[in-house]
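User: Can you write out an input/output pair for a complex, sequences first and structure second?

Assistant: Here is one pair. Inputs:
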Amino acid sequence: MGWIAAVGTLALTVAIFLWFSNMWAFNIFSRRPAEAVTAQDAPAQDAQSEKEEDRIEEAEATKSEEAESPQATPKASASVPDVQVPALNLEDSQPVQPAQPKESSSSSLMPPPPRIPTQQQQRRQPPKLSPPSGQLLAPPKVKSVAPLRTPPSAAASLRAPPTAPASSGLTASTLAPSQQRQSRKVILEPGHSPLDWAALASNPQNNLRGAGLPAGLIRVTPSLLKAHHGRKGVDAWTSYNGKVYNITRYLPFHPGGKGELMRGAGKDSEKLFFEIHPWVNWDGILGECLVGILVSENEAVATTNELDAMD
Ligand code: HEM
């Protein structure tokens, strides 16, 4: 009987132990279902908040990594919740944006370019893009500068004449031709315009050759030409291209003035004429003033002897 009692007590103790152990184990393993049942009120929010916190932490980690190593952009974070992270990153800081587009760059390359070059890549790319951009911009500048500098010089040369008297050295060379180009025309008296001269010359009755001359051309010797010097009431003759003209009536019509035209009186003025205005049509203006042909003294004597012999 004593043996049976001992076995019974042992069995009882074992049963009690097992019961407590089961209770402990049940409490441990039944926590989840118990918490899950209790978490129905706000479990999802806690879980999501924890997930979001984890995501934010990951995002911050990625930010810090990118900030430390900006070139390590292609690193793809394990967190793929791209939709939520970009919204937060856009408000917080932009550096995270390039990471997402790069991850999604496989899908669409268009959105990243406009965003990337704005801030970060502009700072990164300038050294790479600056050489081509500089080459493209520099040549036009250089090419544009050279042509732009030359015109100003030309303009300066055109502007120099008024400032010419002030400056001496530089303007002397540039102004010499300009001064020569300056018009030395004189103000002609009323009724002595080129048109007035043309009207006068068109009338043969005006006898622009001068009084006392035969109808035809005469032989004019150098001495005879010299005798018509234009002073003391004597007509002014001048020679041009082997022909002698009476310029007396043209003196008040000469645009360069009487004094200038008188420089050729009594002698050949071909050289002066071409030096000043080679473009002027001499014969067109003084055609009716033609007196004769310039001949040498001997030739003139020979002709007179021949004429005397014929008589
Ligand atoms: C000794 C000979 C001559 C001298 C020294 C002389 C001188 C001049 C000078 C200084 C001028 C002003 C040029 C200017 O700055 O615009 C001039 C203009 C002119 N001369 Fe004479 N001249 C001579 C003979 C002649 C003759 C023979 C004619 C006619 C056949 C003539 C017709 C003209 C004409 C048409 C102009 C105006 C030119 C123009 O509008 O550009 N000159 N001359």
